[in-house]
Amino acid sequence: MLLCVVHDDADTAVGYLWCHPDKESQSVFISDFCILPPYRGRGYGRSALVALEAMFAQTEFKELRLRVAADNYGAERLYRSMGYRPTGINMRRPIANSERP
C-alpha cells in the first residue's frame, strides 16, 4: 500500500510511505518512508506515522514495524520519540580478499 504524504495547505506531495499489512503476523511493516528534504523537521513524518496508526487502530492489526539504517539518526530519534523500540540488529562484514569481476 503506497500512501502519499501531503502538505496541509497546498495539497503538495511532501513524501510517501509504503507499507505492507500482514494479517498472519497482525502487523503492518513500513518498508519505505520518505519525507522530501525541504520538508524534513516540520512534523510531516510524525503526522504521517500518527495517521498510519489511526488507519489501522480499529482493525485486527496489533503493531507497526520498520527498519531504520544505523546512521539515520534523525529517523531513529523520531521513531524512538513515538514509542518504537529496537527488536534486533543487522550486521555485516566485507569479504576479505575477494576477487571482484
Automatic annotation (TrEMBL):
Give start and end of each N-acetyltransferase domain. Answer: 1-101
Pfam assignment, any one: Acetyltransf_1
Enzyme Commission number(s) from the entry:
2.3.1.-
Judged by the first EC level, this protein's enzyme class is transferase
Q: Which domain of life is it from?
A: Bacteria
Q: Which Gene3D superfamilies match?
A: 3.40.630.30
MF terms (GO), sorted A to Z = acyltransferase activity
Q: Which UniProt keywords apply?
A: Acyltransferase, Transferase
| Protein name in UniProt | GNAT family N-acetyltransferase
PROSITE patterns per record: GNAT
